[in-house]
Amino acid sequence: MKIRATTAEDRDAFVDTLFAAFARFPVSADETWSALELDRGLFATAEDGRPVGTAAAYSFELTLPGEIVVPASGVTAVGVLPTHRRRGALSAMMRRQFADFRARGEILSVLLASEALIYRRFGYGPATYTHRLTVQRHQAAFAVPRTASGSIELLRRADCGGLLEEVYDRYRRARPGALSRPHRWWAAGAGQPPVSEASRYIALHRDAEGVPDGYACYSHTAPSTLTVDETIAVDDVVSTALARFLLEHDLITQVVFNQCPPDHPLRWQLEDFRAAEVGGDTDWLWVRLLDIPRALTTRGWFADGELVLDVTDAALGEHGRHLLTVRNGEADCVPTDREPDLSLDVSDLGSIYLGGTAPSTLVRAGHIRAHRPSAVAVADALFRGERPPHCLHWF
């Protein structure tokens, strides 16, 4: 099995191979893959040179705790033809990707896992979570008073792509776990709404000075249902104003809010706590550390402490023991031969890295081994972020 890089001339063959791996047929009008960076794609090829597997990566930025933004490769379009599975093609492509990412100087990689069983063995761990909230309009009375919060303008998606791009970029830089949406995505209409140019209404919020600071992307879907693709807001006041706007829509019996973060306050804002029904609770962004010392010293920290982490990375055949010391928000991470406080897989380190999964949860689940009980409380305090991480970008 050979691995080679793809070029722009390979686009049709790449898409055809990818779709065949999932028993699907490409749709000519489908713009989902229009933002592919084919200079970062890979083919696994058979002996005669035919492509039998694909993998690609997007060039993103990821926001870490502390509002620190770092480059991150977003792994996507991974597939192997059913005629060539179980022959090492996937492993070979993943190893090549890791080498390429490290050559770019990146400290981590991310992906959305189509199957949870596949990617943990390559060192990725679920790091952000999302759910949907469904609210019946007759139960949508707010318990909190309405506050002045600027104005809302109703637009169509086709008329405001540039504004959405600006608002999203402002939002994602302040939200841990959020990914950038490069301009080429908006320009190509790639992915899913509102990045794509699919017909949608946009409720654009402006502050008192008229500066856009939030939006909700929505459409009328099932009978009497308003479905909200995503709500972007720079603060809770804007988020609440947009939620009120959507829940006051005429001739609608229910509103479905997709891609809600774990700390969404809507259930607590309604008079009837049960009015917002939670569903679709799932993992979203998976994180894989490629340079553990640099990753740990790059993110922001909000407590002081010291831990010795014994980390196994089977996918790369690596093992290291790291002394993490945090003082006054600054971290130092160096090799050590001290006895470990925690032993864990690199995938588990990816899960706790953004603060969305408590180390104690993984200790209780049997993933992380604590060598002294007090180390668990220290780890929980250290890895907790300023707020739960959340990612809603699809790629």
TrEMBL record:
<comment type="subunit">
    <text>Homohexamer; trimer of dimers.</text>
</comment>
<protein>
    <submittedName>
        <fullName>GNAT family N-acetyltransferase</fullName>
    </submittedName>
</protein>
<feature type="binding site">
    <location>
        <begin position="114"/>
        <end position="115"/>
    </location>
    <ligand>
        <name>acetyl-CoA</name>
    </ligand>
</feature>
<feature type="active site" description="Proton acceptor; via carboxylate">
    <location>
        <position position="395"/>
    </location>
</feature>
<dbReference type="Pfam" id="PF17668">
    <property type="entry name" value="Acetyltransf_17"/>
</dbReference>
<dbReference type="Pfam" id="PF13527">
    <property type="entry name" value="Acetyltransf_9"/>
</dbReference>
<dbReference type="InterPro" id="IPR016181">
    <property type="entry name" value="Acyl_CoA_acyltransferase"/>
</dbReference>
<keyword id="KW-0808">Transferase</keyword>
<dbReference type="InterPro" id="IPR022902">
    <property type="entry name" value="NAcTrfase_Eis"/>
</dbReference>
<dbReference type="InterPro" id="IPR000182">
    <property type="entry name" value="GNAT_dom"/>
</dbReference>
<keyword id="KW-0012">Acyltransferase</keyword>
<dbReference type="InterPro" id="IPR036527">
    <property type="entry name" value="SCP2_sterol-bd_dom_sf"/>
</dbReference>
<dbReference type="InterPro" id="IPR041380">
    <property type="entry name" value="Acetyltransf_17"/>
</dbReference>
<feature type="active site" description="Proton donor">
    <location>
        <position position="119"/>
    </location>
</feature>
<comment type="similarity">
    <text>Belongs to the acetyltransferase Eis family.</text>
</comment>
<feature type="binding site">
    <location>
        <begin position="78"/>
        <end position="80"/>
    </location>
    <ligand>
        <name>acetyl-CoA</name>
    </ligand>
</feature>
<dbReference type="InterPro" id="IPR051554">
    <property type="entry name" value="Acetyltransferase_Eis"/>
</dbReference>
<feature type="binding site">
    <location>
        <begin position="86"/>
        <end position="91"/>
    </location>
    <ligand>
        <name>acetyl-CoA</name>
    </ligand>
</feature>
<dbReference type="InterPro" id="IPR025559">
    <property type="entry name" value="Eis_dom"/>
</dbReference>
<feature type="domain" description="N-acetyltransferase">
    <location>
        <begin position="1"/>
        <end position="149"/>
    </location>
</feature>
<dbReference type="Pfam" id="PF13530">
    <property type="entry name" value="SCP2_2"/>
</dbReference>
